């Protein structure tokens, strides 16, 4: 019988997992390596190793009605799109309202999570933690929920950028970016056109001499402010629209959506039209980038071919000289360094989790991952639903399919993703 649950991380996923455990009569213990809750949304002036990091001006690109937990609305006087400081305040209010803090141990790092010797019978885990004074403690838990996020380990694929070792300026990952202060009068190349790359290109272009944005595949760019000034997700992320998605072929929605986006700004003319269809990948949300391109403050470039000193050469043969700074907005690697290597099921290039939550190859469903998902919309309500499902599985109210059935579902999902 599952009773004691270790919840690793006190970000948006960890908080809702602690609450879900309490709702089901389980006894959670949350472990958070930093001195505060919030995870990604806890801003720090200096990035800390192995922790998520955000920049000073970051505002969420999901409206408050769509990002809040289902049982705790965001205050009515908060803006639709909130600055990160308001999001952290909301988490504090949520934790205080549901009395979650007494179940969380801050400045406590999880060093290892291992199945107990009798795991085949008990399904239990040994969790070793270390506090701020370096004191280690070993405890036994009936289940473990991993909520340590996936914006922790910056990815800079140096092998894809020949000559980077010769670069005479400064380069950094978007993880290290805090603000535009160091970019005054500089010539900047931003590599990557995701949400972070778009934000950084726009913000630095206000002070830089010139910003170049390099993209391999382009992107579909949508606005936060939709028709009649309504937040875009409130207009289109509705039950009615989702019903339509069940009734009409995806090709129709790709055609209709792309036509609407190109009516705002022709993606081909702006040199950002991607190779993929609109609903094959999550689009970039940025109201300002097209205007920056139109005004010349940001120049779109194809993939970087090579770097020679302070010169950057692109695939189309164009060259930018006297580059001062390169910002790699090239995404993140993921890892759960506290777990044994054989715990996670590998499916092609990705970690295979059933419904993005449960490893399929465990004898007992007592290990889960919550919040490790890239989907259209905010992580908060998605993590909340995942947490509710996990805790009901742990209580025995819900049963998982056989290992073979889960693996088949994961491989089918991997195949569909690779096709897109």
Shape: globular
- What is the residue-mean pLDDT, rounded to a whole number? 92
Strand content: 15-25%
**Uncertain parts:** none
- Biggest sheet descriptor: 5 strands, parallel
Tally of separate helices: 11
N-C termini distance: 42 Å
Q: Under the CATH scheme, which class of the largest domain?
A: Alpha Beta
Q: How do the strands line up in the largest sheet?
A: 3-2-1-7-22
Structure class = alpha/beta
Supply Rg. 23 Å
| Count of distinct structural domains | 2
The name CATH uses for the topology of the largest domain is: FAD/NAD(P)-binding domain
Fraction of residues in H or I helices: 25-40%
CATH architecture of the largest domain: 3-Layer(bba) Sandwich
CATH superfamily of the largest domain: FAD/NAD(P)-binding domain
| Total DSSP E strands | 22
What does this protein structure show overall?
The structure is a single chain. The protein is of the alpha/beta class and 420 residues long. The chain folds into two domains: 4-152 and 334-419, 3-Layer(bba) Sandwich (FAD/NAD(P)-binding domain), CATH 3.50.50.60; 153-332, 3-Layer(bba) Sandwich (FAD/NAD(P)-binding domain). Helix content is 27%, strand content 21%. It has a five-stranded parallel sheet, with helices on one face. Helix 1 packs parallel to helix 10 (379-395). The radius of gyration is 23 Å and the shape is globular. The mean pLDDT is 92.
